[in-house]
Amino acid sequence: MLESGDPAPEVSAPNQHGDTVTLDFSDPAVVYFYPKDFTGGCTIEANDFEEHLPAFEDAGVSVYGVSMDDVESHADFAEEEGVTFELLADPEGEVAAAFGIDTSEGYTDRVTFLLNDGAVVASYDPELADPAGHAQEVLEDARSL
User: Fold this and answer.
1) CA distances (Å), origin 107, targets 78, 93, 102, 112
2) I need a surface site. Which of 28, 115, 120, 144 has the fewest CB within 10 A?
3) For residue range 83-96, what is the model confidence (pLDDT) as tens digits?
4) Residue 72 has what pLDDT?
5) What is the 3-state secondary structure (H, E, C) of the chain?
């Protein structure tokens, strides 16, 4: 798994609208990986990031959620939960692999990366990333960039 100081990977993936998004990490960004749409912890986490999205935007930080679900699942999840930031579909696990995340079980662990200036600034241990309140912790770190 990528760690602080590692160069940011070059990745592209379709969002919930089917548009291909190429991530540029020259500006601050949060990329959070989650196991699956419509599951308890993942829904809590998505809602938490959505609730804090205006503060992330005010701080100039982009937010991206990534799972191995497909575009259709992401579209349904975003509509049902009111998610307005980009959810990237990674059914083959290519984005996850670029971040060094295991996909052998058919899903990713819950792990978050804060990136800026083309590098990883911080990573959040999947064992310690409680979905409730996680966005606030990442936001506080992002504001210090």
Assistant:
1) 18, 8, 8, 15
2) 144
3) 999 999 999 999 99
4) 98
5) CCCCCCECCCCEEECCCCCEEECCCCCCEEEEECCCCCCHHHHHHHHHHHHHHHHHHHCCCEEEEEECCCHHHHHHHHHHHCCCCEEEECCCCHHHHHCCCCCCCCCCCCEEEEEECCEEEEEECCCCCCCCCHHHHHHHHHHCC
Q: What is the pTM of this model?
A: 0.95
Q: 82-132: per-residue pLDDT in tens?
A: 999 999 999 999 999 999 999 999 999 999 999 999 999 999 976 666 678
Q: Annotated catalytic, 74? A: no
